[in-house]
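Might you be able to consider the sequence and fold that I enclose below?
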Amino acid sequence: MLYSPVMTTLAAATPAAMPRIFAGSRVRFALIASASFGVLTGLHSQTALPVDVLRFCFAGLGLLLIYGWLERWPRKLPNWLPRTALILVGIVLFTLPVSAFAFIITGRGNDYEFGMLLFACLLFAPWIAIGGILRQRDAAAREQAFKFELERSEFERRESDARLRLLQAQVEPHFLFNTLANVQALVDSGSPQASKVLTSLIAYLRAAVPRMHSHSNSLETEVELVRAYLDLMQMRIPDRLQYAIHLDPGAARLDCPPMTLLTLVENAVRHGIDPGEAGGRVDVDIWLRDGRCVMRVTDTGVGLKQATRGLGTGLTNLRERLRLAFGADARLELTEVQPHGVCSEITFTVRDPVP
């Protein structure tokens, strides 16, 4: 008579958080359960069936009122008195007056009919109340677990954002100092290219630095930065560096962590082309294949064995940034190119449809 299947908070919760005493779902359940008991007892009673049904409905609503009232009052209980016990004791104590009121308001009958009403209320009302309390607590526990899961997800997201910003901050000075060191080498050697390279560097940094602070760049933007970087490097060593860039139009709008492609290209120039007297060529290719994006940077420099000593930190940083952006789905692999050179390849699943 009292149980509602959609209660959402503990019986001991504060009044503001409790469902309404006569919420629609509670009243509906109380009336259905009470009417059912009224029909069952009415089959063995001399009173008209509608009267028995109405009598039990009044009793059910009265006990529902007691149940809801004890949910809220008193607001604070002694530590030794659980609210569950208070509700059950209250239901038992109030069953007699509630049954008597329902019996009187629907017209008096004989003692047998009153006994049937009182017996049914005493027998079933406490158990229905226990069921309501347990369902209520279970719903509250699920709600609390859901809140904990939301908080955990939010914490993990903030942690990932913080780690990504930290890794990105490590990349920026690494790139800037390397580029400035190249300019310094030109100045120290008295190269007439120094002024031209410095002018190009200033223009490049003016466009590139704001993009470094974004959470992600499109591959089209990455290619623009790579092209500007290779232009600068070609001014520095025009006779030892050639390059080519190919970007599949379908991949241009895909996102990736800032400076992902630039890290691979910078490694190719710094650890592959620069150490060799003959220089070499850098090829940058980006395309889509079987639902995955492939980013490949190939150089014809000194090769993987001679370049290994300087590759660790930058690629470790890049792997971590890829993991934070794409999870375990992203792959970064280095392979040796014959007769000499290195191929760096990044692949990840395209998550959104490519326009």
About this structure: Residues 1-18 have pLDDT under 50 and may be disordered. The chain has two domains: 15-150, 191-349.
